[in-house]
Each structure stands twice: as C-alpha cells, then as structure tokens.
Design brief:
Elements (H helix, E strand, L loop, with lengths): L6 H103 L13 H18 L12 H10 L5 H14 L3 H5 L3 H8 L5 H18 L8 H4 L7 H11 L9 H9 L8 H9 L7 H14 L27 H5 L36
Helix pairs in contact: 3-9, 6-7, 10-12
Length: 377
C-alpha cells in the first residue's frame, strides 16, 4: 500500500525534465535560427557590398570622361575668365590712353590764356593808351636805332632793299664786301650782274635783288646826278623801292619823319589795337593819325625793337613785357615771368645785336662778321 502513491511523483518529475529539455531544445533551435538569420543577413550584406563595389568598379571608367569633361570645363571657364580679365584690362588701358590722348588734344587745342575782356574803348581812350605805350617804349629802348649798318644815304638805300625776306644781321654781314667793291651808284650800275649776284647771294633772292640794285643805281646816276633824292615822291620811282624803304631812308638819312611798316610794326600795331588793317599803307595811315609827326621815325624804331625782342610773332614773351598792362593782346604768349624771360632776344636776352657797328649807346654786344668762305680744295 505504501508503493502505490510514489509512482505519480516520479512521473511528474520525469515529465518536468522532459518539458525543460524540450524548452531548452526549442530555445537552442530558436538561437540557431537567429544565428542563421544573422549569418544570412551578413552574407546578404556582404554580397550587396560586393555588388555595389563591382558596380562602382564597373561604373568608374564611365565616370572618368565625366571627370575629364569637368576638368576641361573648368579649364575653359578659367580661360574665359582670363580672356575676360585681359579684355577688361585692354579696355581699361584703351580708356586710359583715350583719356590721355583727349587730355593732350584738349591741351593742344586749348587757346592761350588771355586777359579778361576789356571794356569797349573809345577812340580818345585808345589814343591816350597808344601814346602812353610810346612813352613806355622810349624808356625801355632809349637806344633804339635803325639796325642796318650804313654811312650815307646810298648805303642805307641799298641795305634796305637787301633786307627784304632776310634779317638785318645777314645784310650787315654782307654789305661790307659789297660796298668795298662798289661804294657809289655809278660803280654799282657798272657792275657785272653775275659778280653782283655772288656778292649779295647770302641775303637770298639775289637775282631779283641784283636787278633792283642795278636799276636803282642807273636811275640815281642818270636822273639824280648820282645822289639819293630826299623826297618820298622821287624815291618810290626807283626800281625796288616802295613806301617802306623810302620812309626808312627819309627818316634815318634825311631826318624827314616817316612811319616804317614792316612785319614787326604791323603785327604790334594790330596787337596794341591801333589798327585792324593788314595793308601796310592803311596801317601807316591809321597810326599817323594817332601820333604827332615828330614821333613817327623814333616810334617806328621802338615798335620794331620791341617786336624783335619781346613781342614775337609765334610766342610773345607776355610775362616779361613792361607794357603788358597796356596791351589788349596780353595772354597770347607766355605769361609765366621766368619762362617769358627765356624768350627775350638780342641785348635783352644777353645775345649779340644785329649791327656790326652799333651806336655808342647800344648796351648789347655787336654782331659778329660773316665767316670767310671756305676755299675750294
């Protein structure tokens, strides 16, 4: 009776063990399955990675041209940028050059600085100003004189004819040899034309001047007894002699007042506002109405002196001109005082004058004689 109740307990234990074993087995199976799944996933991942790597490897050659294209595109972009920069620089350079050129052109075209416009001037005011200019010039050039060397009316007449289209200096360097050969009208009238041409050749236009000298010498010999007449009406009948030459001879050889209108006198008379005429005779007439007759000869010398030394044709030395406040044309030339001083000529510029034998009161140096001709070898 005691063995019967113990059998169920043993069975229960055995069943429990079996259940535990089953659970353990099931858990192991689950773990194996999980491990298998993990392994499968890893394998799948490795395969996917391998596929990706293979695909990337396969695609890599195809991407290289793209890289090249990109590099080419970058290079092209860089070149384009460089070209644009170069174009911009060129354009800037051109603009700068254009500005400089424009500035230079503007400077070249810019007119000389002029004094402020003057108020309209009455004739009476102009006459007062003109006479004051004459007084100022008299103080500036108390030694003014004819700048041709001569010792008698005939020499002055010949020298004046030779002075056309040349300088007084060149005439003064030429006449010593000429007058050594033919000192009188009779001697000159008898000269061989070719010989006379050679003597006066340095003065230019020697053929035309030879014709005039032979003609006037013969006229003086035949019509005036070998003497130079002292009347304007007679002088202008001589070959090669006009009003200007006649007035030079009358004023300086005979003491007869006359206005000598050469290029210097005409230029300054217009700049001073004494006349607007271009014709020499009209200029003479206009100026003669402004000044008393007694002043005509010396006025001519002073104005010509000023025109040769200060009031030049192309670039007057306005900044060094003592009569600038009286001149309506002030500003046509150089107004800077230091620069203007460098434009002064002859004795005002420390240079020799035009006469080889100037008057005793002349403050400058005499002109040098002409160099002797070089002997032919």
């Amino acid at each position: 009776m005691n063995e019967t109740p113990e059998k169920p307990a043993a069975a229960t234990k055995a069943a429990a063990k079996k259940a535990v074993t089953k659970k353990a087995t099931a858990q192991k199976a689950v773990a194996k399955q999980a491990t298998a799944k993990t392994t499968a996933k890893k394998t799948t991942a490795k395969k996917a990675t391998a596929k990706k790597t293979t695909a990337a490897a396969e695609q890599a050659p195809a991407k290289k041209p793209a890289a090249k294209k990109t590099a080419t595109a970058k290079t092209a972009t860089a070149k384009t940028a460089t070209a644009k920069t170069a174009t911009a620089k060129t354009a800037t350079a051109k603009k700068t050059t254009a500005k400089k050129t424009t500035a230079k052109t503007a400077t070249a075209k810019a007119p000389a600085k002029k004094a402020p416009a003057r108020k309209p001037e009455s004739h009476a005011a102009m006459v007062r100003r003109a006479r004051r200019i004459n007084r100022e010039l008299a103080e500036l050039y108390p030694y003014a004189h004819p700048e041709l060397d001569f010792t008698n009316p005939f020499e002055l007449l010949v020298a004046t004819v030779l002075s056309a289209q040349t300088t007084d200096l060149r005439v003064n360097q030429t006449t010593p040899r000429l007058f050594a050969v033919c000192p009188t009208p009779e001697d000159m009238a008898a000269m061989d034309p070719e010989r006379l041409e050679e003597l006066i050749r340095p003065t230019g236009f020697f053929r035309a001047k030879t014709k005039s000298l032979l003609g006037l010498s013969a006229a003086l010999r035949d019509r005036f007894g070998g003497e130079v007449p002292g009347r304007l009406e007679d002088l202008v009948t001589l070959p090669g002699v006009g009003r200007k030459t006649a007035n030079v001879v009358l004023g300086n050889a005979f003491g007869v007042p006359g206005i000598t209108v050469d290029t210097h006198f005409g230029r300054l008379a217009r700049r001073f506002g004494w006349t607007t005429a271009e014709d020499a005779e009209k200029v003479e007439a206009d100026v003669a109405e402004i000044f008393p007759k007694s002043e005509w000869t010396m006025l001519s010398h002073r104005v010509v002196f000023h025109g040769r030394r200060v009031c030049h044709s192309r670039k007057p030395a306005c900044g060094a001109c003592p009569i600038a406040p009286l001149c309506p044309a002030y500003g046509e030339g150089e107004t800077d005082p230091e620069k203007a001083k460098k434009l002064l000529k002859y004795e005002l510029g420390g240079q020799p004058g035009q006469r080889l034998k100037p008057p005793a009161d002349y403050p400058g140096q005499p002109a040098p004689p002409m160099a002797p001709p070089v002997a032919a070898s």
